[in-house]
């Protein structure tokens, strides 16, 4: 039996690195600036622990475009490399200097912020460059070296006359990548990927006005000076402790993240944990509409202050992807190109932590200033309701702060609501009935009737309310939700008392037959009820179960048997104690009888906003004919 080792040829690896390793060629700049940052932070760490006897100073990463020479320069003042290190880290593909450094100094370098991991970032340069040069000098007292490669496995390495420590990478931009010789394009990429890198990044200069002297004459002309154009903020808010920040600091950082967003955030949640994983960040609750189709790519994911992606699904619970802000963790498992998340047990732990932290923050906001929390409820409710449905751990905590507003703008937690309505809204079977409206204006007459009986009516108008109340009913024994237009008011909460009808059984049967001959059977089921004589003669209602299942089916995930496509079905509730019922019954003229029924039906439909188009036109004409 023969054994051996599989040899991977560099000739074969290079095309893979150049064409397939990175999803987007623009990533090269992020990787090279990250490498420069690592080199700088390594030097900082070594000077801090006394292993480098050099002055750390105030190092800057300098980016320069030489459009005429078709070159892009990335220069740092970091640790640099010796000739031996160039051989080790550059000529051996996927040998990560950062990983080796962290292993060597694993105890003292834990919080150094060093980014590199796979050792492949440097080779992303060949996606846009036909030739790459490295001119580097180590912080140690060793000669500088000059490395050159044209993207083939061949390279040259020779002495260089560089006297300052650090590394300069020179990309000779290829003909198909000349976009990266444009200042605007480089500026765009630096702002996208490196806006919050921990080492200052210089890209050109800018003009800055000098302060006006206190004794300046009236004809004083403003003086200006050229200063380095530092494009990043090395110390963003999320890297600081919450105790170091005021409300205005959080708002300023929000404006820094979203310069084109003019609305202020409602509040923020500062994430800061170092066990069992490292994670920092700030999440903002923006003003949200009741529309679930909001943009879900507003949270930015960073790894050691390097931008990775704005698609955070997986690490951030789905219901929170509607928020904005930043999450930064060196422990997030990324693919080899640092472009997206890999499936990992740590991701779920981080997601659970974020869920718990958000729930705790919401509870504290509710407890500390309930009035302010209530004022913001309509702007945040869709996120919280979605969270209750999608995250069991959030649902467990939500009872302490999720609110249920009434049509009169009073706010209750579920337990408070139960206490409030138990005495008046418990039916004859001992079930607590929560009445609600979906639209205060369209269901106004139904709301008024319920309030006349002393009932509280909630206003639940989010697109997922049917799913939410279904879950609440399942988790709360003897509790049911009923929309105010699901039946006539006496049937919404059935009591023991029973009203007596003015019509006898024979008259009721005759009236029902008459109505069914006129009212469209495909849409309406005629239902005779004995009610107060002052109650509306005709009421159009939609059964709670049917309407709820249809809504759940339409909004996804909860309907039954395709009910979202079923035609609308309604009950026509006729008050047998109203004079109109008797008039219809006693009218001998069939045409007049039909006109009375149609007019009453249209009025009932009008109160449900169901009268539209041709039917509305006919109703208006008929109404004018009746009063002329």
From TrEMBL:
Hydrolase found in the keyword field: no
Keywords: ATP-binding, Chaperone, Coiled coil, Nucleotide-binding
PANTHER family reported in the protein's UniProt record: HEAT SHOCK PROTEIN 90 FAMILY MEMBER
UniProt record similarity statement: Belongs to the heat shock protein 90 family.
Alphabetical list of Pfam families matching this protein: HATPase_c_3 (PF13589), HSP90 (PF00183)
Official protein name in the record: Molecular chaperone HtpG
InterPro entries per record: HATPase_C_sf, Heat_shock_protein_90_CS, HSP90_C, Hsp90_fam, Hsp90_N, Ribosomal_Su5_D2-typ_SF
Coiled-coil boundaries: 486-513
Source organism superkingdom: Bacteria
